[in-house]
């Protein structure tokens, strides 16, 4: 009787814990989509099945060890087989597995059904940033980590969204079926937002599909979930979900920006404009390897500050940025940066940290090179 | 033949009576069991595929 009472108290205690502890940071999030909720309930269902099996199996084992111990005169039974028992303990796990597989398969089927989407977004992984392209809308941009390097190096206190904040989040409408097409420009990445229960590998040469229908406006954060190199932990995912009207306004604004950016290639740029833009581009794109002060990390990442050979050869400098250097970590930026950013960052590199070439590279020149190639 | 099928099914399930196992080893030819096992494995794959097709419907 006392044993039963103790057991009952334990069950109640565990049930009480469930409400508080399991809904906390320790458990997976319930999320804000139908799929994420069904993934969560599958997780909890299977978790409790495991708990029950664990309690029964270990309970029976520890009870037998204690109750039939040798000092109490227990004698071991010697028998070889017992077909009925064996059939029994083979059938039960089979039934449990089928009981778990049926709802899990139903959810998987839902997750893989990417048909009839309202909006398609191409997500391309780069070392180490995400690129979002709204297919058919002519809007495409990069999403870079925006956590200041002082916080990363421990020189400033870390803020709430340390390493989970970006300069430009992916913006999506709520209550719409959004299809994600994931791919990669270099190595395998994985685009992951726990609140949507979406985690999809981004692989070079492949296009994977996933989808979501967000139910609540808000900001959702995630990370790259496939080890992709030095800055794997520095390419977060941030999604800003908003009402359809707000989304339409945002998209219209982005389209306008894209149009005016195209115009700005043709005009004459001043040195200080290029330096200001170049510094921004350098710190988000180049500084990860060549370091904030251009000192590099020799021998893998050469220094740019005081690199006389490079400063004497403008043609080579432009070529390296546009086309990369084969057999090294230096990628080609002709496809990922626009002419303004390329011109600005080269101008910046040639006139910062004691490099004083005085060279001003015009976006229109870069544009001309790109179209002639 | 029915005995062979029953023994192969028992092997698929993973549980067999000791007496049946002994008699199989005394009377049957190995090649019959192997061939039956291969055929029934193919049948099972077919069954699983058709269940999956039905579920994907």
Automatic annotation (TrEMBL), chain A:
<feature type="domain" description="Cytochrome oxidase subunit II transmembrane region profile">
    <location>
        <begin position="20"/>
        <end position="115"/>
    </location>
</feature>
<keyword id="KW-0408">Iron</keyword>
<dbReference type="InterPro" id="IPR002429">
    <property type="entry name" value="CcO_II-like_C"/>
</dbReference>
<protein>
    <recommendedName>
        <fullName>Cytochrome c oxidase subunit 2</fullName>
        <ecNumber>7.1.1.9</ecNumber>
    </recommendedName>
</protein>
<keyword id="KW-0186">Copper</keyword>
<keyword id="KW-0472">Membrane</keyword>
<dbReference type="GO" id="GO:0005507">
    <property type="term" value="F:copper ion binding"/>
</dbReference>
<dbReference type="InterPro" id="IPR036909">
    <property type="entry name" value="Cyt_c-like_dom_sf"/>
</dbReference>
<feature type="transmembrane region" description="Helical">
    <location>
        <begin position="87"/>
        <end position="106"/>
    </location>
</feature>
<dbReference type="GO" id="GO:0016491">
    <property type="term" value="F:oxidoreductase activity"/>
</dbReference>
<keyword id="KW-1278">Translocase</keyword>
<feature type="transmembrane region" description="Helical">
    <location>
        <begin position="39"/>
        <end position="66"/>
    </location>
</feature>
<dbReference type="InterPro" id="IPR009056">
    <property type="entry name" value="Cyt_c-like_dom"/>
</dbReference>
<dbReference type="GO" id="GO:0020037">
    <property type="term" value="F:heme binding"/>
</dbReference>
<keyword id="KW-1133">Transmembrane helix</keyword>
<keyword id="KW-0479">Metal-binding</keyword>
<dbReference type="InterPro" id="IPR011759">
    <property type="entry name" value="Cyt_c_oxidase_su2_TM_dom"/>
</dbReference>
<dbReference type="GO" id="GO:0042773">
    <property type="term" value="P:ATP synthesis coupled electron transport"/>
</dbReference>
<dbReference type="Pfam" id="PF13442">
    <property type="entry name" value="Cytochrome_CBB3"/>
</dbReference>
<keyword id="KW-0349">Heme</keyword>
<keyword id="KW-0813">Transport</keyword>
<dbReference type="GO" id="GO:0004129">
    <property type="term" value="F:cytochrome-c oxidase activity"/>
</dbReference>
UniProtKB/TrEMBL annotation, chain B:
<keyword id="KW-0812">Transmembrane</keyword>
<dbReference type="Pfam" id="PF11174">
    <property type="entry name" value="DUF2970"/>
</dbReference>
<keyword id="KW-1133">Transmembrane helix</keyword>
<protein>
    <recommendedName>
        <fullName>DUF2970 domain-containing protein</fullName>
    </recommendedName>
</protein>
<keyword id="KW-0472">Membrane</keyword>
<dbReference type="InterPro" id="IPR021344">
    <property type="entry name" value="DUF2970"/>
</dbReference>
<feature type="transmembrane region" description="Helical">
    <location>
        <begin position="31"/>
        <end position="56"/>
    </location>
</feature>
